[in-house]
Amino acid sequence: MIRFFFTSLLLTSLYINNVFAQSHLLDEGISWELAQYRKERMSNLQYSLEFSIPEDKSEAIEGKMSVSFDLKYPAEVIFDFNESADKLHSVSYRKNPNGKGKEKAVDWLFMNGHIVVPRKYTHAGKNQICISFTAGNQGLNRRDGYVYTLFVPDRAHTVFPCLDQPNMKAKFNLKLEIPSSWSVAQNGNEETITNNNKHKKGTPTNKEGYKTQSFYLDTPIPTYLFAFAAGEFQYKKYEEDGYNIGAYYRETDSARIAQLPEIMHQVVFSMKWQEDFTGVKYPFPKYDLVILPGFQFGGMEHVGATFYNDNTLFLPNNPTPDEQLKRTELISHETSHMWFGDAVTMNWFDDVWTKEVFANYFAAEITEPLFPNLDHELNWLRTYQGAAISQDRTEGRTSIRQPLDNMRYAGLIYNNIIYNKAPVMMRKMVKLMGKEAFQRGIQKYVQNYKYDNATWPDLIEILDAETDADLKSFSKEWVDTANWPSRKAKDYTEAYDIDYYGYTELTEEQIDALMNNFPKGGAKKMAAMMTLYENYLNKTIEARAFVDIMLDIANADDPLSCSSAISYMGEPLRELQIKSNAEEIETIEKKIYELSKSHSLTSVKTQALRLIISRAVSPSIVNELYEIWKKNDSPLLSINDYMTLSYELAIRMPAKANEILAKQRTRITNPDRLSQFDFVSRAVNPIETERDNLFNSLKQAENRRIEPWTLSVLYYLNHPLRDKESVKYIRPALELLPEIQRTGDIFFPGNWSSNLLSGHRTKEAYNEVENFLSAHPEMLQLLKNKVLQAHYHLQRSNSPVSVK
Question: How far is the C-alpha of 486 from the C-alpha of 398, rounded, in Å?
Fold first, then answer.
C-alpha cells in the first residue's frame, strides 16, 4: 500500500520511488537491505515515547514518538510502522536537535508499513523527528485491569513508529498517562516520585482519575527489549547481599505469593553467578519481575523488567523435582540474558540462537549447585538433548543457524534446535577447548561487545584465540548443518553412550542384552531410556514391550528417571489404545494408576496421576478419576490440575459435562484463573455444533489474543477422544498458518500446529496434512517446518516402516 500526503510531496515521492525502485528497502517488514541502509547512516539513537492508556481496553491508545539520532550525511530516513496510514497523525522535525524549538511539518511518504522522511529534512549530525500516532494493538496485550507489551522479535513497530531491528540500539524515555490506581513496571528508572509508595507513585493529570509517570533508561537497548506493564498489580521488594529487586504480580493465592522470596533468591543467585563468570557487573540500572496471567512464553528477558508466565513461576503446593528444576532453569535462563542478548545483542536475528544458547547452557550450570541432590548429567540429557531430538528426528529439522532476509519471518527461526541442540553443541565445544579457555574468551566477548551487537563469527574469532582446537570446522559441522545422524549399534553398550547425539538402532538381541544389563542409574540410564524410545518410534520395539520396560523403570526410586519413564509412556499408550483390546488397555492403565497410589515418591505419584488423567479411556479408571474430582482434596493435584481434570472428564462423561464444569467453576476464586477457565472450557462442550462455532471464532485474530488459552482450546477441540469429529478442523486450521504467523507471537505457529495435530493419528488426518502440503509448494520453508515437526507422529502412525 502506498499513501502520499500533501500535494508538495508528489515530486518527492516520485524521486523516492525512482531511487528505491531496484531495492528492497521498502519491502513489507524489515529487510536485511533496509537494516544495513540504516545502520550505515544512523547512530546514537534516543527515543522519547508518550502513551495515553485508557482504563477501558476498547478505547484507542494515543501516542507520540520523538527520536534523536546522528546522520553521517543527509539521507532519507525510513521508520517502520505496521499499521494503517490513518493512524499516523503528524510527522515533523526540529532543526534544533536538543528538543527545543518549534516542530515543523514534514512531507512524508507511507509505503508497505514504512514512513519515509525525505532527505531535505535531514542534515549531517544530530537530527530529531517527531511523530504523533494512534498505537497499534498487535504488540500490546490489553486485558481487564492491565496491559503489557511484547515486542520480540519485530513487534515494536506494530505499536509505535521506530527502527525495529536489533542492531539499532537506543536509549529510551517513557511517559505514561494511566489510571491513578495503576502501577508501572518498565525498563529504567523513574524521573518523578511524589510519595513513598512506589506502587502508587506518579503525578496527577488534567484527566480526572489519571496520573502521569515518566521513566528513563540511559543504557542502549534494541526495540524488541523495550517494554512496560501497567495495571492493577501488587508489588513486593526484595533485598539480598546488596541486590534490590522487585516483583509485580496479580496472584491472590497466599501459598503461591509465599514463594516470592525463593524466586527472588534464585534471581540474585543467578546474577551473582554471571557476574563471577563474566567479570561484568549486572549491566543495567535495576531488576524487576513481572508475573503475568496467560503470558505467551515462560519468560521474556526485558531489560530491568523480566516478564514471566504465572503458572511457570508459581509452583503447586507439592511441586515435583521436574517443576522445581524447570522454574530454576527458567529464572537462570532469563537472568543470563541480561548479559547475553541484552548487554551483548545479536546483530541480526539469524543469530538469535546465540543469545539462547548462552541462556540455556548457563541455566544448567547455575541450576546445578541449587539442587545438589539431583543428578544433573541425567537432567542435561533429558532436558536439552531429549528436547532437541524431538525436532531433529522430524522432516522439519533445521540447522542451528538459519538464514533470514527479513525480520517479518524472524519468529519462525525459534525452535527446539536453537534452544536445546545449541547448548548440546556448546557443551561439546567447551569440552573441546577447555573450561578455562572458554571462560577467558567469554569474558573478552562480553567486555568487548557490552551495549553493542555481535555475530557468531565475532565470538568464534575471540574463542579461536584461546585454543588450538579447530573451532571453525566444528562450527560448520554443528551450527551450519541440519543433521540427525544414525548408526547401527555394534554392541548393546552403545545404547548408553552419553556422548553420541543421534539415533542408535538396536537389534532384538541387543535389546535383550541391554535389558539384562541395564544401567542402574545416572546419565547412562537416561541415555539407555532415550535410545529405547527412539527404537520404539522407529518400530524396532513394540508399544506394549516398551510400556512394560518404562513401568519397571518408573517403579525405581530416582525421581528424574522415573519422571522420564512416565512421560515416555504417553505415545505408546495412545498407540495401544488405538490397536489393542479393552482388557489389555485396562490392565496397563491400572498399572499406571497404581503408581499414583503406591509409589514411594510423591512426585512420581503426581506424574503418574497426571498421565492417567490425560490418557485414561477405561471406564473403571475414568470412574476413579471422577471420584477424585468430586472429593477435590487430593494432595497430589493443584487447582490447575483440577481444572485440567474437569476438562478431561467433561469429554469422557458428556452426560455430566455441564454439571462438572459448573461445579469446577465455583471452586475457582482468582479472577484471572476464572477467565482462563471460562475461555478454555468452551472447547469441551458436548455439543458438536457449539465446538464448530468455537473453532470458527478462532479464525478472527481478536479471538486468539491470549495465546496459551487459545492453544488449550485448539488441543481440546482436537482431543484424541474426538479425533474423528475434529478431522474437519485440520485443513482450515493449517490454511490459517500464514495469518497465525503474521498476527501471533514467536512460538504461536509451531504451537498452533502441534496442538492441532497432537490428538490425531488416523489415516484421514494424515491425508489432510499431506494434501495441504501438496497444495502449497510455495509455502515459506520456515513455516512449513512447523507443520513437518508437528506431523511426525501422524507420519509414523501411517507408515509401515520407521520415519527418518
Answer: 16
Instruction: Return d(Cα 736, Cα 756) in angstroms, integer.
Output: 12
For residue range 682-700, list pLDDT tens digits in order. 999 999 999 999 999 999 9
Please tell me the distance from the alpha carbon of residue 335 to that of residue 450, in angstroms, as a whole number. 16
Q: Based on C-alpha coordinates, what's the Rg of the chain?
A: 27
Among 62-76, 175-189, 205-219, 399-413, name the one with the lowest average pLDDT: 205-219
Q: Which residues contact residue 493 at a Cβ distance below 8 angstroms, ignoring those fewer than 6 apart? A: none
Rounded to a whole number of angstroms, the distance between the first and last alpha carbons of the chain is 44
d(CA 638, CA 658): 22
Residue where the block lists cell 484421514:
764
- HSE on the CB side for 600, CA within 13 Å? 7
What pLDDT, on a 0 to 100 scale, did the predictor assign at position 4?
Answer: 45
At position 247, the amino acid (one-letter code) is A
Spatial distance between the Cα atoms of 599 and 320, rounded to a whole number of angstroms: 14
Q: What was the pLDDT predicted at 180? A: 96
Nearest to 289 by CA among 318, 316, 257: 257
Mean pLDDT computed over 645-673:
98
For residue 258, give the C-alpha cell. Answer: 509465599
Q: At what angle do helices 639-652 and 657-666 cross, to 10 degrees?
A: 170
Asked whether the beta carbons of 281 and 450 are under 8 A apart, the reply is no
Q: Is 455 helix (H, G, I), strand (E, B) or coil?
A: coil
pLDDT at 281 over 50: yes
d(CA 25, CA 41): 14
Q: How far is CA 662 from CA 613, 625, 644, 656, in A?
A: 19, 17, 14, 10
The pLDDT assigned to 206 comes to 72
Model confidence, pTM: 0.95
Three-state SS annotation for 543-591: HHHHHHHHHHHHCCCCHHHHHHHHHHCHHHHHHHHHHCCHHHHHHHHHH
Strand partners, 184: 230
Per-position DSSP letters for 305-346, written without gaps between them: EEEEEHHHHSPPSS--HHHHHHHHHHHHHHHHTTTBTTTEEE
The string of pLDDT tens digits covering residues 578-606 is 999 999 999 999 999 999 999 999 999 99
| 73/95 Cα distance (integer angstroms) | 15
Phi, psi of 177 (to 5 degrees): -100, 120
Q: How far is Cα 346 from Cα 327, in angstroms, rounded to an integer?
A: 26
pLDDT in tens, 64-79: 999 999 999 999 999 9
DSSP 31: B
